Each structure stands twice: as C-alpha cells, then as structure tokens.
Amino acid sequence: MTEEIPVIIRVMPNAEELEVSVPKTATPRELISHILDAGVGIPKTDAQSNQIAYQLIPKGKNEVLKEAESFEQGEVQANDVILMIPKVIAG
Fold it and tell me: Among 10, 16, 25, 78, which residue is least crowded by beta carbons within 10 Å?
C-alpha cells in the first residue's frame, strides 16, 4: 500500500483551501488533474475560454514542483500548504 501525505492545497487567486491526502508516488500533474475533475468549482478556462494551466508551489519555497516528479522527490511533507497557481503566459 502506498503511503499518503496529508496536505492543504490553497487554490489561487481566491485562496480556497482543499485538504487532501496524496500518495507519495503521485505527481503534481496527477493531483492537478484530479482536483480539476473533482467538480469543486476550480475553473478550467478563463473568461476568453482559454484553458488554464496550473502549477504547484509549496508555501515558503520559491520553487515550482516539477510536474513529472513525485511529491516524495519534491520533498513535500505532511501538512504542507501547497499553492495551486495559474501559470501566467505573457502575450
């Protein structure tokens, strides 16, 4: 059985918080996809119908978790607050 890590996902910009447990072997890409598909009101598109891409950043760290690395590889600890922030694409 895969060990799970309890974390708090703070969805920006509204700072909505979701308490979740994620397998240590899961990746940020998998968690973001799961959250968006869960129907909890997190927008998938912006006002112009462009798809919104999200990234995960542990609070207190200035580094984005790599999408394909596990939470264990990203050194995520139990009860960490992780910011789920829309990627900004300059255009």
Answer: 78
Mean pLDDT for the stretch of residues 13-36 = 94
Strands of 1-91, DSSP E: 4-11, 16-23, 54-58, 81-86
Give the separation between CA 74 and CA 72, rounded to whole angstroms: 5
Single pTM value for the model: 0.88
Query: In what order do the strands lie in the sheet containing 81-86?
Result: 16-23, 4-11, 81-86, 54-58
What's the chain's average pLDDT?
A: 91
Q: Compute CA distances 22 → 5, 17, 34, 51, 75, whole Å.
A: 5, 15, 11, 24, 13
Residue spans per domain, the chain = 4-86
Report which of residues 1 and 80 the model is more confident about.
Answer: 80
